[in-house]
TrEMBL record:
Stretches assigned to the HTH tetR-type domain: 22-82
Transcription regulation as UniProt keyword: yes
Species of origin: Kibdelosporangium persicum
Taxonomic lineage: Bacteria, Bacillati, Actinomycetota, Actinomycetes, Pseudonocardiales
Annotated DNA-binding residue span(s): 45-64
Record flagged with keyword Transcription regulation: yes
Region (Disordered): 1-20
Record InterPro entries: Homeodomain-like_sf, HTH-type_TetR-like_transc_reg, HTH_TetR, MftR_C
PANTHER family found in the cross-reference section: HTH-TYPE TRANSCRIPTIONAL REGULATOR RUTR, MYCOFACTOCIN BIOSYNTHESIS TRANSCRIPTIONAL REGULATOR MFTR-RELATED
PROSITE patterns per record: HTH_TETR_2
Protein name: HTH-type transcriptional regulator tcmR
Gene3D superfamilies: Tetracycline Repressor, domain 2 (1.10.357.10)
Keywords: DNA-binding, Transcription, Transcription regulation
Length: 215
């Protein structure tokens, strides 16, 4: 390609192959959680997960570096949804507008945290006793924080995240993690299908973070 020509910027929906890969990764995550719940992490092999997801072991290892990391697509759904909303959050809108946007977009999104609510809550419960899964959960949030910070910096009209924006991103990130953990650790698993779990806790946690410390 001549040096004065730029590579076209792709917009719109991702290509079909990318969507299929994302769907495959999500199905692997669902299968992994089902097996981890039934047999434990130690009692589940990567081959078991691949077979349950209907793919080969070779394909599984192309998507995931470790057995524990197979669950990551379920853990990142809510994080990615929040990042999308932060990028659309205008400077003239308040926190309640952001929360309304999150509710509206979640209602029309296929792969958000509401779709796999039961699997997500069961998985986060497992992170209390499975160090490998806990590491994946914390890593997902570690990766999210700079993404949130970039979105907030753009909203503020800054060239990049400053200290205030970085702290705000950390507050949002922590609110998300703590809210989902709180619902997972304190809610009866039988109630996981109830509408509003864990979304209501996420929204409440974000409002708490926005209010800051009591005077």
């Amino acid at each position: 390609m001549p040096h004065d020509q730029k590579t076209p910027v792709r917009t719109g929906r991702p290509p079909l192959t990318e969507r299929r890969k994302a769907e495959t990764r999500l199905e692997v995550a669902r299968a992994a959680v089902r097996l981890f719940l039934a047999n434990g992490v130690a009692g589940t092999s990567a081959e078991d997960i691949a077979a349950a997801a209907g793919i080969s072991s070779r394909t599984l290892w192309r998507y995931f570096p470790t057995k524990d990391s197979c669950v990551k697509p379920l853990l990142t759904g809510g994080i990615e949804h929040t990042a999308r909303c932060l990028r659309s959050w205008r400077r003239d809108q308040g926190v309640t507008d952001l929360l309304d946007m999150m509710r509206e977009q979640a209602a029309g999104t296929v792969n958000d945290i509401a779709t796999d609510r039961t699997a997500l809550l069961n998985l986060v419960r497992l992170t209390r006793t499975e160090p490998g899964l806990r590491a994946v959960w914390l890593e997902a949030h570690r990766e999210a924080e700079p993404v949130f910070a970039e979105a907030l910096a753009q909203r503020a009209g800054l060239p990049g995240p400053d200290l205030a924006v970085t702290v705000q991103a950390a507050m949002i990130n922590t609110a998300l993690r703590v809210a989902v953990e709180h619902e997972s650790f304190t809610t009866d698993p039988a109630e996981a299908e109830t509408a509003g779990y864990p979304e209501a806790a996420v929204y409440e946690a974000l409002l708490i973070a926005a209010r800051g410390f009591p005077s």
